Fold:
Amino acid sequence: MKIFYRVILILLPIISAFGQEGYPKPGVTISGVFKNSFCFPVVVSANKKTWSIDSSKSQDIQDSKWGEWNWLPGKVSQVSEKTVLHPLKNKPPLNFGPGQNSAHQGRNKYGYDFPADEGTPVHAIESGIVSKVVQNYTKAHDDPKKDLSNKVEVVHEDGTVSSYVHLKPNSAKVGPCEKVKEGQILAESGNTGYSSGPHLHIDVYRPIDGLNYTTIPLKFK
Structure:
């Protein structure tokens, strides 16, 4: 019985936020409910047909149901390039830069691959809030269509999101919604996901709308 009451108490704040047809009530801000989200608020407009993410532009959700909405953390901005801290202490030169391999194309053009032995500490390139931690994958593979990489993502004050990929399994030193400082160790480099050997992939993207995004050029200091 105690377990039942506990479930009710947990669900009540979420249930009370919903109106008819499974949509949130107008003007309600909800955190940590959406797929792909951990702690970033979603504000629903009065007509129940648009929503905004962290002050980004409104999106038309048409007739999509609550559980089908998808979005990226961060916010729409005009940031076109950044100078950031090098993610590895010894500052190795690039293996592959923007457009230099098959994974660095299209909206993912501005990706940066650094050589790094498995277990090398990976540092935050800028202060922010952790928006995603994936650390359960154990193997590398050769299928570019599969997103099976361990990663940590951090949302920065300007609305951009840094992504650290191919990390060692269960090596994360931070958790979702945690505030991190520039230079703080986030995880350890590894060889998971679409990878031909141990290295660190990093990119910074800015959301456009829904799940659309674009990576931006980086300079490392």
In short: Helices lie at 2-15. Residues 1-38, 41-69 have pLDDT under 50 and may be disordered. DSSP finds one helix and 17 strands in the chain. The longest strand covers residues 199-209.
